[in-house]
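Help needed: design a sequence for this.
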């Protein structure tokens, strides 16, 4: 069960004080009845809630796919730089945050949510969540480089990176799939094999794939199927 005012806030139709006004003015119906008490208890799976005649479906968490452009930092707020959250516009809600980070000069898939448990599981090294990047390099990618990347390379930490999957696209571009998320990991891996990243874009995380219809800086809510593909990592 959940309080009516919390349900309305979670849905995003206003602040706690605003939704209390909506309730007092008789703008909220639960099933066939106008309810004027903010602390009215709902059964999410059973009750239907209407705001100004429009039915509101309960959503406990929010999930967005964002196509991060270059020049924007992965942070919830910053006094000097534009952040990925600034791109959310009117969809930005108090508790939303980016899952993991992409460098300022890196583009691609970024998950935005308020589900802290899911974020923790997706970023946990124990879960081995695959993340695939499209990479362009300064030098041609040799067979020796491929072998080193697939075996794991020394990037200056206690242990070598876990084995990566490599798909060569052109002499100087590849898809690189890793299951870790170390600082600047892809760039450091290519440097470790005497090459250099000139362009980097994340295209997938787990089974979540960047929507090709999203322009840079655009976002959309995840589908139920996409949410389910991520939530399975909580159950493992």
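Sure. Designed sequence:
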């Amino acid at each position: 069960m959940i309080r009516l005012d919390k349900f309305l806030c979670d849905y995003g139709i206003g602040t706690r004080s605003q939704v209390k006004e909506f309730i007092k003015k008789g703008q909220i119906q639960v099933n066939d009845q106008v309810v004027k008490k903010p602390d009215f208890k709902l059964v999410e799976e059973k009750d239907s809630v209407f705001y100004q005649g429009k039915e509101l479906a309960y959503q406990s968490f929010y999930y967005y796919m964002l196509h991060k452009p270059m020049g924007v930092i992965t942070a919830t707020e910053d006094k000097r730089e534009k952040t990925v959250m600034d791109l959310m516009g009117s969809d930005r809600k108090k508790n939303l945050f980016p899952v993991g980070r992409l460098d300022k000069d890196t583009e691609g898939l970024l998950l935005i949510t308020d589900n802290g448990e899911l974020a923790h599981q997706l970023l946990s090294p124990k879960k081995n969540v695959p993340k695939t990047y499209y990479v362009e390099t300064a030098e041609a990618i040799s067979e020796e480089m491929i072998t080193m990347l697939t075996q794991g390379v020394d990037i200056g930490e206690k242990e070598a990176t876990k084995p990566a999957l490599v798909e060569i696209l052109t002499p100087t571009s590849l898809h690189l799939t890793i299951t870790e998320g170390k600082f600047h990991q892809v760039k450091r891996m290519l440097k470790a094999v005497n090459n250099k990243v000139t362009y980097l874009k994340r295209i997938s995380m787990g089974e979540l794939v960047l929507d090709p219809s999203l322009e840079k800086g655009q976002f959309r809510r995840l589908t139920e199927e996409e949410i389910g593909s991520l939530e399975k990592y909580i159950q493992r």
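The mean pLDDT is 92.
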